[in-house]
Amino acid sequence: MNIEMFRQPLLGIVEEAIAPNQRGRVKFDGTYWPARFFETNCQTTVYPEALVAIVGIQGITLLVEPLEPEDILKLISEPAGEKKAVADSSNRLYWGLPLGNKPSYARIF
Question: What gap in Å lies between CA 48 and CA 46, rounded to an integer?
Answer without folding.
Answer: 7
